[in-house]
Amino acid sequence: MSEISKQTRVELIESVSNRYREGSRSDKTLILDEFVRITKYHRKHALRLLGGRKGSVADRPAKPRKRVYDEAVRQALIVLWEASDRICGKRLKPLIPLLIESLTRHGHLKLDGEVQSKLLQASASTIDRALAPVRSGSKARQRRRPPAVSGQIPMRTSGGWDDPLPGFMEIDLVAHCGGSMAGRFSHTLTLTDISSGWTECVALAVRDSSLVVQGLESLRNSMPFPLLGIDSDNGGEFINDGVLEFAKRHGLDFTRSRPYKKNDQAWVEQKNGSVVRRLVGYGRLSGLAAAESLSRLYSSSRLFVNFFQPSFKLLKKERVGARVRKTYSPPATPAARLLSSKHVDDSSKGRLRAVLASLDPLRLLDEIRTMQRHLTGLAAGEPDHTPPHRSADLERFLASLGTAWKEGEVRPTHRKKATGERTWRTRKDPFESVWPQVVEWLDVEPDVNAKELLSRLREAHTDEFTAGHLRTLQRRVRDWRAMAVRRLMFTEDADVGLRPEDVKQAPGDVVHKL
User: Fold this and answer.
1) pLDDT single digits (tens) 34-68
2) Confidence category of residue 1, pLDDT binned at 50, 70, 90
């Protein structure tokens, strides 16, 4: 039986205790046995609860735990953790005595006797709990485990492709998030053929496995060769029952790359940059309007890229000493590679030649530029979401090709150079004039809270401060207390009476002194 909740246990005690107290000896035994089996309580504890004795653990109000390791201990632990090159708590605990002795001997650290005693008696788990907030802000994003269905999908490395037939494709998703993964935004499903380099892009309104299956289903009938196999990364949008069932239903060879090894999918990763990012850029696109515009862009770009964009293909790599020598085939378009392949039937080649004869590269490029301007407006939040109509007259576009180089980059979706980080304040500091007074109050009463300080300020300055300044003052007081602890620990005197703009730089001072 699964463990029951605390509330259920309380209700069970109330319903059973009266019957237990009024029952015979044999009835009490049966009730007690059943009660222990359900609640998993110790038998003596169950006797006290059902007998109605006062003072049991369940009747006692929860007491707040006394904080043994205060802010001074935590600040000292942070310093020792940084001095040890950020090792884990189990490795840091035996090193603490040596670090304290060494840093104290060289004049870097001066610890109070009580703080030093607590540091020496802290367990490894206590050290890890105290450092958890610091680690969460400094370590990289936690890796996600692949879903359990991944055990049914074999792995394939970057060297696992042995001159495959046309139709074996690597697939991946490109997020059009604009640098923030919060909320919903559009994605591009990219497929790249290993043999020819043929690339297909499908616009997805959101990241969803059912949309991935729909995109793969639609591409099976539009590509000039049959889909034989797919190779994906370990993302949940690919490694799931829906995509696995799609592969089994159509007899596809479904493989996946090694977790966190992006080079295993080097073919599609290269196209993510040279095709998707080059066409769409890095702006944030969200909503059905953006997905429809992406679809219209890809309907033209798939023809332009696959018929009019030659690319190199890596044939082999060999290591000569410390150097890797790569051999490439002559540049050719994906369509040209399919036309020269002996594994593509004559009817497919005939359709490719007919499509090539009907294409106008300038008209395709004009459509691409038109949709790129529209996507740039969507990413910038312009109110007009209506896709523009392509002009039937190409004379203007053709005339601009001879002088476009003078204007620099012509792609509207090109990522502009990032500006420098802002180092100035955008709002006036509300506590700049009264901060010395606040520091005097804190020196006299270090334990006074920010709410009390704000109340005093509002009394002294009636029209200057409001309740909305509480959060800002709480941050200032927190930084001041951290600096006060550092002044007690380090031999080099720190300026505790800092201005608010100076306090923001204070946390880095400890690391520099080490």
Assistant:
1) 888 888 888 888 888 888 755 445 455 566 667 78
2) very low
Contact 495, 508 (CB under 8 A): no
Which position has the token pair 């043929």? 198
The residues near 61 (Cβ < 8 Å, ≥ 6 apart) are none
How many Å apart are CA 399 and CA 4, to the nearest integer?
A: 77
What is the model's pLDDT at position 61? 59
3-state secondary structure of 312: strand
Rounded to an integer, what distance in angstroms lies between the CA atom of residue 173 and that of residue 190? 6
Taking the C-alpha atoms of residue 40 and residue 51, their distance in angstroms, rounded to an integer, is 17
Q: Name the region of 286 (left: φ>0; alpha: ψ -120 to 50; beta: rest).
A: beta
Average pLDDT, the chain: 83
Q: Which amino acid is at 509?
A: D
Amino acid letter, 204: L
Topology (CATH) of 148-389? Nucleotidyltransferase; domain 5 (3.30.420)
Ramachandran sector of residue 500 (left: φ over 0; alpha: ψ -120 to 50; beta: rest): alpha
Q: Are strands 168-175 and 187-193 parallel, antiparallel or unpaired?
A: antiparallel
Residues composing the chain: 514
> Nearest 5°: phi and psi at 312?
-85, 155
SS3 letters for 349-399? HHHHHHHHHHCCHHHHHHHHHHHHHHHHHHHHCCCCCCCCCCCCCCHHHHH
d(CA 299, CA 307): 13
Write the CB contacts of 67 (distance below 8 Å, at least 6 apart in sequence). none
Beta bridge partners of 231: 170, 255
Using the predicted structure, report yes or no on whether residue 265 has a pLDDT greater than 60.
yes
Task: For the beta carbon of residue 91, count every other beta carbon within 10 angstroms.
Answer: 11
Q: What is the per-residue pLDDT for 84?
A: 84
φ, ψ of residue 178 to 5 degrees: the values are 70, 20
H helix runs in 381-461, sequence order: 395-400, 435-444, 450-460
CA distance 296 to 279: 12
